[in-house]
Amino acid sequence: MRVSFGKVIGTVLMALSVAPVHAAEKLKIGVVGLTHTHVHWIFDSEKQGEFEIVAIVEENKDLAQRYARQHNYSMDKVYDSMDAMFAAEDIEAITAFGTIYEHLEVVQKAAPKGVHVMVEKPLAINMEHALQMQELAEQHNIHLLTNYETTWYPSNHSAYEAVKSGEIGDIRKVIVRDGHKGPAKLGINSEFLDWLVDPEQNGGGAIVDFGCYGANLMTWLMEGKKPGSVTAFTQQLQRENNPKVDDEAIIILGYDNANAIVQGSWNWPIGRKDMEIYGETGAVYADNRYDYRLRHAEGYDDFTETKQTLPERKAPYHDPFHYFKAVINGDISVAPHDLSALQNNMIVVEILDAARKSAKTGKTVQLK
Q: Short name of one Pfam family for this protein (predicted)?
């Protein structure tokens, strides 16, 4: 079939006339910190061409140079401080890949300049920091998002849809398991390990590092409702590797008509991030990023089961940095209980504060 050149040009012009002007523009991102190894994610994502890393803030030049060789960026992009970066570059958004403690300073520097911020999970070291960050974000009208790996799992979104459609009835119990064999056993680089096992910089061990996932997912499933009670238990099963922090944590969240058990651990023999949701009439299992199961109850212990291996979610819902750009451009509106949302993650920090208090005192903490 022949297609006229005029018709092709007309179609292209029509497409251009309805496309948003900002669609072809690259978001200018500054990366603050390289000590969190999730930073490799943004360097790999940049290759898709939707945003540009225009500057990097990292005092440790040896670390910056190692990553420069790996990701092929110029050391001319690397600055010693956020102040120096802002003086030299036009930055629209910041992604923070330093310690959790440093998240507050990133927002303190970026918010007054109207620069949007995405931090790695969790939002903040404690509620004191979180409240300051929230106030700054609201005062200066910036987006302040939190990134979790599990936010981008298609299996979790299928589970959420099954719950919201009533496919398994009302939620009664959720079990979330996250973790690995422990950072020391994984052989991660010292720049990351040093602060992961430092209670001042990370806020704790596994209770923070992996307990935050379950708190985030449960707040999403409950549409922003806080648990009434938080009970937590921690252990040091690898005292030689983690002398200052816990490496085993169980957090129990109590709601009016449901409960959740969050198991964050640095003692799993095999790394995992999975979730089970039990309703009144069935259950769903997000076994990993792609594998999803749905069970409908029949009788006492019989059930029917369907299994799916899911494809990646469609852009921009497949990747944190493409999502960040879409939010900044106004293509996506973030609901308060969404996984990346500030309001959701304020509750996450409140849950983690209560969990640490419960583990320390041996008592259940009631949330207001």
A: GFO_IDH_MocA_C3
H or E stretch at 78:
strand 78-79
Cα–Cα distance between 176 and 274 in angstroms, integer? Answer: 6
Total length of the chain = 368
pLDDT digit string, tens, across residues 251-288 = 999 999 999 999 999 999 999 999 999 999 999 999 99
How far, rounded to the nearest angstrom, does the alpha carbon of residue 256 sit from its chain's CA centroid?
A: 27
Q: How far is CA 189 from the centre of its chain?
A: 21
Classify domain 153-315+334-366 by CATH number.
Answer: 3.30.360.10
**How far lies 347's CA from each of 199, 290, 341, in Å?**
20, 27, 10
Reference 158, options 285, 338, 344; nearest CA is 285
Residues forming beta bridges with residue 254, ordered by sequence position: 229, 259
Q: Is the dihedral of CA 136, 138, 143, 147 positive or negative?
A: positive
Q: Look up the pTM and report it.
A: 0.92
123 Cβ partners below 8 Å, 6+ apart?
103, 130, 133, 144, 146, 342, 345, 346, 348, 349
| Greatest alpha-carbon span in the chain | 77
Task: Output phi, psi for 308, to 5 deg.
Answer: -140, 145
> 313-367: per-residue pLDDT in tens?
999 999 999 999 999 999 999 999 999 999 999 999 999 999 999 999 999 999 9
Q: Are 109 and 86 in contact (CB under 8 A)?
A: yes
In 3D space, the residue among 150, 154, 152, 149 whose CA is nearest the CA of residue 308 turns out to be 154
Q: Please state the domain extents for the chain.
A: 5-149, 153-315+334-366
| Identical fold, 5-149 and 153-315+334-366 | no
Q: 5-149 in CATH: which number? A: 3.40.50.720
